[in-house]
Write a structure and sequence with these properties.
This protein has helices at residues 6-22, 28-41, 48-70, 74-108, 124-139, 149-157, 170-178, 184-216, 225-256, 274-277, 283-294, 304-322, 326-344, 347-352, 354-372, 391-410, 415-425, 427-447. Helix content is 70%, strand content 0%. Pfam families: MBOAT.
Length: 458
């Protein structure tokens, strides 16, 4: 089930809100947990067993770590942590990366490894990282272990951010899992955020996705350099509005239910550098890798060579986290190399020519998205005697120029002050505009057949 489906918008979520708000304070976690498990099992009920097993193992491990630390049995606590890490990493490796291993090994040595034809459990990368951060933080004594099984199960399985983030650390929501306040202000702001996210997804991401797929489907006789760049721009807009729209919806739903999730995007296409881009894009993932991998490996504290090693490890694993395919590995290493160059080669150039480097940053990001999409890069640079532009290019320029301009404008924070002003001075107008957006989204969903979430299976 996805947020931009009729089953969610007109059945599942309204029922959640009715029962959640009608229930007593001490029943709200139970209600939310039940609906979160239903939400997860909607598409693949068999994998609910895997999630419940993961919840139980990490719950027990957290209690054991806390008990051993309290008894000053640090070796036992460390053993508990290692066992939990092995389980979590094994689960994600087996279901997400074993098919990739099989395809590569059996390509060299036919039928050496059995192929179980496994489908990827939805959201396993997100809830596994949440579980890992919890047991690590309990071991570091940054948070106490959660003794209530229902509360812990809710933390892992909470449906707003279950299948596509943001990755929420236990410390960020522990207080609100135990006791949260529901207010009209939060419900209103959450509703607004949800509608904005739904609009990003339905009105923008889906439209750009169709343009990109059509351009990718062109045969070589219709390809041209400018056409390929229109496709690259379209994909860059699609993945941003798709993923940030989902994060907006998750944050909005959370707020309607009394939770305040962290922000996951901060206008990433305004980035001044690749480093700045990754401080703005998928913030919860970047901070997770920094906190739980880069810093423990030594970060930048042990000299340049160790720092370079750490960056390459983190970014290769970041690529693998996004998907079990070579293009994701290359995509991760591409960013790792760019970050190394920024730190050790381009630093003075960035300071002297910040505007030029900002343009270069956008160029490098566009190329990265073609790696991510596993698209053919040759047309972008005119390899293979491809024309600079042709009749097909003019067609896409004429038909896409308006939506591309809207997409570029929507990536910028220009509308924020006006939105705040309208909400303050003319709240009725603000409600009318949001209602209009919601209705437009519903009409679009009725007429659209293209409605994927790019991050749905990460």
């Amino acid at each position: 089930m996805v947020f931009s489906s009729f089953s969610f918008l007109f059945f599942f979520f309204p029922l959640v809100l009715i029962l959640y708000y009608a229930g007593f304070r001490y029943t709200k976690n139970v209600i939310l947990l039940i609906f979160s498990l239903i939400f997860y099992a909607w598409g693949e009920p068999v994998y609910i067993i895997l999630m419940l097993l993961s919840i139980t193992i990490n719950y027990i491990t957290g209690l054991l770590i806390e008990r051993n630390i309290a008894s000053n049995r640090m070796l036992s606590a460390r053993s508990n942590l290692i066992l939990a890490a092995v389980w979590n990493l094994f689960a994600i490796a087996f279901f997400k990366y074993y098919p990739f291993l099989v395809s590569n090994v059996n390509g060299i040595f036919p039928d050496l490894l059995p192929d179980y034809n496994l489908s990827l459990p939805i959201g396993i990368s997100f809830y596994t990282f949440q579980a890992l951060s919890y047991v690590i933080d309990v071991y570091r004594q940054k948070v106490p272990a959660q003794h209530n099984y229902i509360s812990f199960a809710l933390y892992i399985s909470m449906f707003p951010q279950l299948i596509a983030g943001p990755i929420v650390r236990y410390s960020d929501v522990a207080r609100e899992i135990k006791n949260r306040t529901l207010s009209l202000h939060d419900f209103a702001s959450g509703s607004e955020r949800f509608i904005i996210g739904l609009s990003k997804k339905v009105l923008l991401a889906n439209t750009f996705g169709i343009i990109f797929e059509n351009i990718q489907g062109l045969d070589s006789s219709h390809q041209a350099i400018i056409t390929a760049w229109i496709g690259a721009l379209s994909y860059a807009f699609q993945i941003y509005f798709d993923f940030s729209g989902y994060s907006d919806m998750a944050i909005g739903i959370g707020r309607m239910l009394g939770f305040h999730f962290i922000e996951n995007f901060n206008y990433p296409y305004l980035a001044k550098s690749i480093t700045d881009f990754w401080q703005r894009w998928h913030i919860s993932l970047s901070s997770w890798f920094k906190e739980y991998l880069y810093i423990p490996l030594g970060g930048n504290r042990k000299g340049a060579l160790i720092q370079i090693r750490n960056i390459l490890i983190v970014w290769m694993l970041t690529g693998l986290w996004h998907g079990a395919n070579w293009n994701f590995i290359f995509w991760g290493l591409y960013y790792g190399i760019l970050l190394i160059l920024e730190k050790f080669v381009f630093a003075s150039f960035i300071k002297r020519f910040p505007k030029i480097y900002r343009i270069l940053t956008l160029f490098l990001i566009l190329i990265s998205w073609m790696l991510f999409a596993n698209a053919d890069l040759s047309a972008l640079f005119g390899f293979g005697k491809i024309a600079f532009l042709n009749q097909t290019t003019w067609y896409y320029l004429k038909s896409s120029i308006l939506i591309l301009a809207i997409g570029a404008f929507a990536c910028l924070p220009f509308l924020n002050p006006y939105g705040k002003h309208i909400k303050k001075k003319a709240p009725f107008l603000a409600v009318t505009l949001l209602t209009g957006l919601l209705l437009l989204c519903i009409v679009s969903l009725i007429s659209q057949s293209y409605n994927p979430f790019l991050y749905f299976r990460f």
